[in-house]
Amino acid sequence: MEIIELINVKREFKILNRREGIAGGIKDLFSRDYRYLSAVDDISLKIKKGEIVGYLGPNGAGKSTTIKMMTGILEPTSGKVLVNGKEPYRNRIENAQDIGVVFGQRSQLWWSLPLKESFKVLKEIYQVSDKDYKDMLDLYMSLIDIKNLWDKPVRQMSLGQRTLSDILAAFLHNPSVVYLDEPTIGLDVSMKSKIQEFIKGLNSQKATTIILTTHDMGDVDALCNRIVIIDKGKKLYDDNIENLHKMFGMYRIMKICFSKDVGELDYDSLKDKAAELEKELQENFSGDDMTVSVDEGWIDILMNEEDVSLMEVMNFIQSKQHIYNIKLEEISTEKVIKKIYEGGTIL
Amino acid sequence: MKKRNVKFYLAIYFKIISQDIKSKLSYRVDFIISTMGILFTNIAGFITFWIIFKNFDNINDWNYYEILFLYGFSLMALTPTQCLFDNNWNLRDYVYSGDFIKYCFRPIDLYFYYISEIFDLKGIGEFMMGVGIIVYAWINLKYSVTILGILALIVMWIAASLVMAGIMNIAAATCFWMNNSGYVMVTVFKFTEYTKYPIDIFNKGFRIFFSFIIPIAFVTYYPSMVVLNSHNLPILTIIAPIFSVLFFYISYRIWMFGASRYNGTGT
Q1: What's the CATH number where A266 sits?
Q2: Whether the predicted pLDDT of A53 surpasses 90
Q3: Is ipTM > 0.95 here?
């Protein structure tokens, strides 16, 4: 059953062409000289009940615009968005009853109210029955320890506690879809994984559909069974993560360490070394996809095994310098995504 | 699903406000200092007013106690805007930073949800002062106290408060259209100073301006006439209750129209 459906959705924004200088500014006041920018350009998408979809793309790709259309605060220029079979922007309030939204750094809770009181107000707003409310709280208790949050006003909470509270609040009325916008931004590692576990738990218990926009590939790896990548308003990729890795199956990362002690080398000299190495490799090997970067004392060489032989590269480097340690890695989701953003190719 | 009617909204409103007051009172020092701050501001204003009147017996045939009555009524009429609609002052920042979007996802009226977020207790002191001044003026004016008179005054007070809130709604909503709307609110708010004076001391141009353009004459002057000039009510006093409801509704529509135009600044 499809819970969200986007059918050839386009959204344009009208932007005034600004002129320079004061005279230009005055002319702008009366100007009708607009250009049109496609924030979302012909995107179609079907999302089933219970899916966790990572909605990814670089800044300005059109993610927020899509989410705004799905949540009913923006109307598409053409095409159609259906959430639970209805167009959300035709009836914002009806749609809002059945969704939850979380912004990583913008708490939607009442600043001065303790969490339990915020929940009581939300219970009223969403008209949650006593039984459903109690069931949901029991589920929360079984998944995570929220005792220390319960009596705390939101303003006294740490960022992690606040984000967790916002997530709790978003699921409270058991919505069919929850939109999470950078939910773990600025959080420490342990809080991140705690929140990821909690979201996973809720998703499996309540079959809540979750749309996650993030730049944190840790979130994506931990949560999403499917990812959609967009850039410049167009859909670049829509499939599960495994297939994404397969697309780049021939890519390997060779990690090299030139020193006995990893902590010995400082970042700047490593960076210079990496740049130098990249230049040399590109001169001597045909693969134009080779990139060299620095990762905590290691030098990472990303290469496509279809183009170059791993052994040859290793021999080449060893002929110049002594290698102390070497590791081979599959390409990470983060690197894959980066390649897609940079390449801009539709897979 | 129950229908979201007035009762539903009132229930939510009181829930938020009662909790908010409870938590505010736990910050006792903060509350006491800011209440005293408002009180001192008003006392200073009052002293200026008093000094002026020590030098003139009357202004344009308005005697000291009549003007005092207007002064007190004006304080009372400003209080609800201060207490209940204070979040309008933050609107520009929310819109500018893109944070306004976080208000758009609840299944309730957007304006209600936004405005109900903040309840400012400080205005209560101002209100008490207003009531005190009105009682004092009323006694000295030697008007009789009738239930009808008090009821009429309460109706007029509600009408006046609605007009004031409406003015600030429109002033705040300008931020949906312009980047630099901060000064609009400040300027409009400064005009409310003039509510404390009888409108006929101004010339005709200002009178029209204050009655129909920025209708601050409906915040104090016309409503007060129900007591000060009860035998010969001006037509604008009679229509003030209807006008106020209409005006507030229009201001609400403008606010909501602005909000619907708005679409975050992305993340």
Answers
A1: 3.30.70.100
A2: yes
A3: no
